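[User] Could I get a sequence and structure tokens?

[Assistant]
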Amino acid sequence: MNELTITKLFPSCKQKEFSESLKERTYVGIDFGTSTTVVSIAYLSKELGIIESQAIDLNQKLFDGAIHRSYKIPTMLAYVNNQLLVGEGANKLKLKLKKDKNFWHSFKMELGEDIGCKYPQSELNNEKFKLLNPKDASKLFFRYLKVQIEKYVNLNHLSREIEYTVSIPASFEANQRKDLIESLHENGMMLDKPSLIDEPNAAFLSYISDNTLKSNIHISEDIPTNILIFDFGAGTCDISILEIGYNFKGFYSKNLSISRFDELGGRNIDKLIAIDILFPQFIKQNNVEESFFKMKVINKIIIPRLETVAELLKIQACKELSLMNWSSKNNEVMNLTDTVQVHHEVSFKTKHGTFSLSIPTLTFAEFIKITDSFTSKNKLAEKRLNDEEKFTSIYTPVNSSLLKADLDAEDIDYLLFVGGSCKNPIIRDSLQHYFPETEMLLPHDLQAHVSSGAAIQSLIYNGYGRNIVEPITSEPIITIIKDGSEEVGEVLIPSGAEIPTAEITISGLFPSNKVQEQIEIPICVGNKNKLVHNIMIKNVDNKPFSLDSEVTLTIKINEDKLIMVRAEVDGLTIDAEPLNPFSNSDMSFKDKQRFKAESEYNKECARNFGVETKDALVKLYKRYDELGLSLKAAESLEQLYDKFGYSSLNRVALHYSDAGLRDKAIYLYQKAYEENKAPHLAFNLACQYHYNDNKKYEHWIEQCLECDSNYSLGIFSKGKVLISNGEIEKGKLLIKRAFDKWKDEYENNYLSVHISWLSSAAAKLGEYDFVEEIKGREDEDLNLEQFFDANNLLTTHSINTVKGY
């Protein structure tokens, strides 16, 4: 067995002429993390003749003007008293500032999304600094990094010719990479050359370059070795599987698979602690019902503030469980009722007063249960806050990678832990049980490890023009075409293709109908719900294309995983610019319509200097309502009611009821009823108790009829109550009274209630022919605009593909 070192995979680093040329430049690696960024430099050790690296301390200004020096730079920005704070200075103020207004974090995870002005209330919007979206935040963050790196280089008398490599999740797609590269380029970093490395590959380079490790990787010359890199950071869970082997050229390495992009990281654990543990503590301490707070306040203010202390509790719990040598084997004999606490009061000022959580607390049992949600073998994600928040298991990306590599768990020889979230002993324990035959590898510093590998990549690539591990595609690249009346996905580049690809030329594509004046070629990643390009070709003079007009597609993926596409037809050539999807996740057309509406709303707010207008909010609310997004509709309408007096509490409560938030609906109905004792409010209150409290249901039906004895919904419901209590004839008379009124309205093309009430009354009276008569009447379909017109798609008789790999 051979011990794997970087010189085995890259013998050239020992060549004298190579080592001399390295002195002319400084090689920098940046691990741009969701929560923490680390910068390292790499160099060739004269004494040992090997590549070494070190994380470098950078200056981070605090609010009081003091300078904090550390290699860990929180990926955060803050704007206070007309000064921009980056890193630790921003981190120390995170409990005092308002997210997306004067404090920004996790912006890395939102790169590549086209949602307009993401931060319409941003206080940072002037000639010197502009911060209205995640890309702006990234630009400012890298501007700071560049200044500090150059200061370090000058102070340490290093070459001022700096070569950068930035590590990012392997699963980042073209749109996310494009935004990041543009942020770097606008700061004069890494122009005109490949600049990115997948984080798992950087971790692998760092590990095999560290000559101080006790656990080394050993490679057989006869059987390839499979290494799974488990990179679990604050925002992503990135899996890469490498094959290391030996052939006639010597040792080789290749990527077998990488996981698809999932928003899964340590911050998701923080959020679940905030929702399931701390929010109930907050409600109890303040002696209020959950329904007391608007959902928007809970989602946008309370939960994000609680997440901050949830992270502190999680870190403390991980440290103490590690010191106790916790494992699933000794779980039952340990005292898991013990708690961890943080003495950071979380408080919120509202028009109703100040609410706080004085001593946030987490038991070990609670923490283990929370983490179990992320180690479940169940494929279904857990959901919270009316399905707005999704929590995915780490085994979703793990199994995705194994499947793509055509491997089973027992085929993995080594598992390398990377990322700050791997400090969680419950996560490591779960993986050790899932891979019982696999040797586990743990670096010295889980957080600095990736930046070290990025610096080594910078040295090897920029110094010698080599990649030790060639990156691959995580998902297939497909186009959507017509097959008869069906829309189908045609694979252009499969998952696992080595990058960069050579040009791939695809012909045999034709217009799908004889009146087609425009051709659309949607290019998607993974499936048709994730559009990254839509090539549109319009014929000259607006004439239809001939059915014999052949379309040729040329596609390639460059070194930074950007998709380059060109289409040619009848002498017309279109080079496509990548589209940024509204979200980095798969989306239904309803989701796309939601994000489109939110994008337009954000842009309108930005035009009004960050202040929302009534018209913009009304438009957004109406779109939510049309799309059947009840919770979003409720939140936006409640905001309209409070701020502009638009609509009514009754309407807000109806939306909350439709969203399944019964307590919130009851609270608002009662508030409205106290102000105005109207029959419809009493009736809506009755409906909240219909299936769980007959006494209250009947009480509110009586209240409804006391307000208006002719209120048809109250009459119908009273009839049903009488029938259920055995007074059948009396009940039927009341139902008939309501039915006659509704039927008359229906026949005069006006119906004051939803048609389902008329149908229900008819069925109660045995009027089944009438039920059938009205059965066909349906609500109008939503006008769900797609992001391509299916009538403009191409079709094929047989695709001819010339692939360059």
